[in-house]
Give the backbone structure.
Amino acid sequence: MTIDRLIRIFAGSFILISLALGIQASPLFVSPWFLAFTAFVGANLLQFGFTNVCPLGWVLGKMGVPAQSAVRDAPAASRG
């Protein structure tokens, strides 16, 4: 699993969870302020698209998650 894939998984999960917790019609209703968290994640994804800078990417990199797949970096002849 690479940093790019984990960023997408985290962002999608956080958006879906905060929407489920923030929508008033939901039986999981906690607070409409969870929608502000959804907006924060969306804004972070938007700025990441323009600047290619993501705080979660820095954290995952420090944890040792590879930036790219080893298969993607290998020459075509060695992939089989």
